[in-house]
Amino acid sequence: MSVSDLFKPLTLLHGPAMRNRFMLAPLTNQQSEFNGKASEYDQFWMQQLSQGGYSLIQTCATHVEAEGIAFARQLGIFSDDHLPGLSQMAATIREGGALSAVQLHHAGHRANPLLGGIPSPASSFTIPGVNAISTEEVERIRDSFIAAAKRAERAGFDGVAVHGAFGWILSEFMSPYLNDRTDKYGGSLENRARLTIEVIEGIRKACGPDFQIGWRLSIERYGLVLEELREITAEILDKELIDYLDLALWDSAQIVQEGKFRGKTMLSVFTELPRKGVRLGVAGKIMTAQRAGELLDEGSDFVLIARAGILQRDFPLQVKANPFYESPKTPVPAEYLRQRGLSERFINHLRGWQTFVTRGSI
To answer: Which range of residues forms the domain containing residue 115?
Structure first.
């Protein structure tokens, strides 16, 4: 395929088609208000992105319960008080021609008590002195995801993306290392995947027929087992429970280092699965037009742009204008980001990435 193939539309199982193969990855930015309401900086960020040529724009990780907060100034969707700001974000994205999704998030055992979070571990050994949450509490969190999806629909978003990556609660329950439960949410792979499946199926039942559902999956760390994740993904694809899979890799080119799939690309482990009408996208160091095009050749239906989208808000338009476009190299000075419209809150968040903002730059 050529880079021009990135600009072909892509139909989804529900709702409108993607106008091209560029999706904006969910980017934590810590620029909302302390109560979870969208700030003027959130709105300006969405305004910039809406003109960037993406087919679908996801919000940052947006917590579905006040107690499930992970970061200071994290966007919230646990209260109707959040609806005005979310509605404005959805309208801005729509006016720019892209589809929109709220990424639904709960921090699980990583909820931050300093921010009012209540750690909710799957197991009693994960955090010293903190017991595993009860079956009833698991079901409450499940219902909070579903309620948040309904709220996103009311706000005018085209769909939601369920955050099942990076050790947050859905990923945590999937892990045999972090989940030693003996109820229906622990033990077998089927039981450990139950929370994820119930969230997705609950959203599909509660929301309209055109509402879109994505699922973000990561493989590394937190005791996750590649073979298990492939098995449960195969089931989700076969049943067409989602519209798109967002495969969050550290590097889209990474190679499996051990186990049954050793020597294969991590991406190929999933692109080889029959996916029926579900679309598969990948994130991970996609910094050039050529790499984005290569990933379609490797079996992806679309690509998720993260760091490159922060450095250049209109990455898709840059690629359209220049099939050999390459993102600026990181780290970059803070002033570079400031001149391109990033808020000080966002820039301060990026300073924690170590390799993004030039050390010592003011």
So the answer is: 3-328
